[in-house]
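hey so i finally got around to running the thing on that chain from the lab meeting. sorry it took forever, my laptop kept dying and i had to restart like 3 times. anyway pasting the input first so we r on the same page abt which one it is
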Amino acid sequence: MQIFKNIYFSIQLLLILVKSNIGVYLFLLKISEDASKRSKIKGEIGNKLAKILPKLGPAFIKLGQVMSTRSDVLGEEITAKLAKLQDKLPAFSFNEVKKIFKSEFNLNIEDAFSSFDDQSIAAASIAQVHKAVTKKGEVVAVKILRPKIKKKYLNNLNFIQSASSVLNIFFKNKKKIKINEIINTLKKASEIELDLRLEGAAANKIKENCKRDLGIYIPKIHWSLTAKNILTSEWIDGVSIGDKQELINAKHNLEEITKKLAVTFFNQACRDGFFHADIHPGNIIIMKNGDIALVDFGIVCYLDYELKTFVAEVVYGFLNKEYEKIKDLHFKTGFVPKDQSEYKFELACISIGEPIIGKSLEEMSLGRLLKQLFEISRKFSVKIHPELLLLHKTILTIEGTSYNLNPEINMWKLASPWIKNWAKENLGRKGKILKLKKQQEKFISKIKEMIDIKSTKEKDNDSSLDILKFSLIMLIVNAILFLGLFYDKFLS
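ok and heres what got predicted. didnt touch it at all, straight out
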């Protein structure tokens, strides 16, 4: 069945491509040898793709947004155009909204709300949002998935995967785009985007993580009016962070907003390991008191302890120009294979950091730094985690937002005192002890697994001997941990 869907979609795709004349530009790129002409042609290809992808379906829009971070594959000219890819479509009818609400709650909209705007305030490829007032008088935002969107989205992904396999056969001697990694990233993201109960849960988790943080606000979820296809959340009044003139008119401090944005992102990514991964200006609202409110948690990303600590140490290492530590970190964690040259990798890190760190935001960019790190990573056979692609995309978006507020403000320099303080607490001796505890937990789990498997196969006395060995090992591990804590508390 999927093969027929792919054939039908291929015909549609071919017609759209022919109509767009993108093939002409691809041919010109192939035959052109002049660098400046090639750059202009690539820019035109980027423009064409930014217009074509929204016509193909929701997964193609998401694919374009993720690929906008891969200038190492597509080139700066194309990715710059894809970065401006708009996820906006015409709204579906209010009658459809009523049908979806009725099917989810077995209620008419009039029975659940005292008022409900029939015109949407925002309509994207996955869902649209309406403003409403509950029977209790609470102003809310109601997000509704597009009809049959899950089927369409997954069909898109399956087609992209099939098409990429065919393309890689034809271009097997060329540099391949590892599309499967990107598809897996999109599939993980779609699990939350296409089930609004999970999006509500993600918002709840980030709200809980940030409850002690100053300057950040996450809207409350109305669970009684939330289902798989509908999410009802607190309405947030304020000014979009993308509307610079309105922020100035409201007498907001742009420098303070920029600092809060950097600290908020760092808290989520490096402290909590769970961050809002679709943090474009439309999803950032500045409230009257100057707090940053985040909305729309359809795309979030989880970094496990090892990955979030790795990211934090790499960022901190670059900010402080500790290139040897960055090199050691990559090799010790296994990110760079042992057969690669350590001193060459360190030189590569220096070549990345020195031109960027310490400059104004116009010149300094963590997004650009990560992009270059990805580029050299390919040369050193490093596997790039799909989560890091979302992290990179998020950093680029945040930096672009900050740049639009004030090109002279260096957001990472503003947040540097906070980052250094955080690093002292989490990446110093205490961080090492915490890492040791995490490794201990993994070690205990693996040993217990081995004992359970062995005890089912062998006699009880053999199993008892294993448990005795395990206990002795744990005694040694805990002694090391205790000595670390003692040193940190009394001798540091």
